[in-house]
Amino acid sequence: MTDMIEHKALTGEPAAALADFSRIFEAFRQTNDERLAALEAKKSPDVLVEERLARIDAALDEAQRRTDALTIKARRPSLEAKGTVDVGTTEHKAAFDAYLRGGDTTGLRALEAKALSAGSGPDGGFLVPIPAEREILQRMTGGSPMRALATVRETSTATYKKAYSTTGPAAGWAAETAARPQTNSPVLADLSFPTMELYAMPSATQTVLDDAAVDLETWLGGEIETVFAEQESAAFATGDGVTRPQGFLTPNKVANASWSWGNVGFNVTGLAGGFPAANASDVLVDLIYSLKAGYRQNASFAMTRRTQAAIRKLKATTGEYLWQPPATAGSPATLMNFPLVEMEDMPEIAANSFSIAFADFKRAYLIVDRTGIRVLRDPYSAKPYVLFYVTKRVGGGVQDFDAIKLLRFGTA
Q: CA angle, 320 as apex, 329 and 146 as ends, to 5°?
């Protein structure tokens, strides 16, 4: 079986990596079937089979990481300008490049004066050119799962506000000529999504800055996209809503039978820190159908890689595995025919942990981007390096509490 779990380094095409992944998963299924057969025959686990399954499971995780990385790399757009570029964009790019290389603010100040803008300057930094900003945000989607799942809005203000009806729109039936009776007034919730400041501080030597062959705009985007995506991913899941966006795991959580607006409902597995030994799939079925049909059709599972590894061993009563590998390169794995998204910032399985979410994230969660990524050049604080203090403002939070359900690994 050892030769079945050998795989290549992080090179090649996503399709080849997916084929490697599928081959290892087939080895995983065969070994897990052997483990289950041993349990039924001996009523106790076979240590050698358990160890082999653990090795294959680790190889499967590594293969999935490689497939995901290659897929993100293939989809990542270039930060270079595409198509027809207007004079204003070219002028801004040239002025921004001069600022990054030598701290020359003349061009950017002239652009601000032309645009009658007073929103930036040497003390607060200068805005990244708009095309580069859009590409950076697009590239961050690959490293921040919630950006690909949730609703994303842009705002020019510090706080984005929206009214939401917690009871649905008022409506009724009436005959063609009959009077229209007054409907009940809708109950509106005023939701606010303040934007919080996210920052990074990459550094460069003056030698790099003096090298005309280096596209500093592309370099800067590459330096910040990963760290910004990692910080956002953590905040969108577990953020406190005070110094960072509020995560979908942060609001008050109540048993689904007692759910009310403003809370996130949850089901329980019935066993602290794990799935029940018998009919574990029933727990997931109950979670799926705790979400209303209107949300369920576009819902996805979210969990960590280790939780996913535990799910991979589960079978339906018909003998089929609940977890299935991606059908094509770039598509997600599925759990009971619903997409499964990996979110490493969710809790691992433990007593009373909320380790699995099932939601229509597009309707459940809102991400708010305040327009403008700002850069402040600092050649003084860390000589001989030049620091670039890069900031963007982003907010987020649950916008529809009825569109998300959690699974608690506990008894109540």
A: 40
* Cβ-based neighbours of 363, under 8 Å, separated by 6 or more: 151, 295, 298, 399, 400, 403
Cβ 395 vs Cβ 245: under 8 Å: yes
What are the Cα distances from residue 251, in Å, to 69, 304, 412?
32, 20, 18
* Distance separating alpha carbons of residues 111 and 128, to the nearest angstrom: 13
Instruction: Specify whether the backbone of 270 is left (phi greater than 0), alpha (psi in -120 to 50) or beta.
Output: left
24, containing H or E segment = helix 14-42
Structure tokens at 362: 């597009």
Q: Percent of the chain scored above 70 by pLDDT?
A: 86
Q: Virtual CA dihedral for 244, 246, 250, 255, nearest 10 degrees?
A: 180
pLDDT reading at 280 higher than 70: yes
Sign for the pseudo-dihedral over CA of 341, 343, 344, 347: negative
**Distance separating alpha carbons of residues 106 and 232, to the nearest angstrom:** 34
Domains of the chain, residue spans: 2-75, 127-165+187-304+343-412
Angle of helix 47-75 versus helix 130-143 axis, rounded to 10: 170
Look up tokens 């229509």; give the residue: 360
The set of long-range contacts for 24-29, using a CB threshold of 8 Å and a minimum separation of 24, is 24/56, 24/59, 24/60, 24/63, 25/60, 25/325, 27/1, 27/56, 28/53, 28/56, 28/57, 28/60, 28/312, 29/321
The widest CA-to-CA distance across the chain, in whole angstroms, is 82
Segment 255-265 shows an average pLDDT of 94
Q: Do 209 and 101 touch, CB atoms closer than 8 A?
A: yes
Pairing mode, strands 365-378 and 354-359: unpaired
User: What is the pLDDT confidence band of residue 164, given thresholds at 50, 70 and 90?
Assistant: confident
Residue 358's region, left for phi above 0, alpha for psi from -120 to 50, else beta, is beta
Q: What is the pLDDT of residues 345-365, one digit of tens each?
A: 999 999 999 999 999 999 999
Rounded mean pLDDT, 214-225:
88
Length of the chain: 412
Give the HSE-up count for residue 411: Cα atoms under 13 Å, Cβ half-sphere.
2
- Count other Cβ atoms within 10 Å, centred on residue 148: 16
Rounded to 5, what percent of the chain is helix, strand, coil? 40, 25, 35
Give the span between the Cα atoms of 69 and 142, in whole angstroms: 9
Q: How does DSSP classify residue 115?
A: T
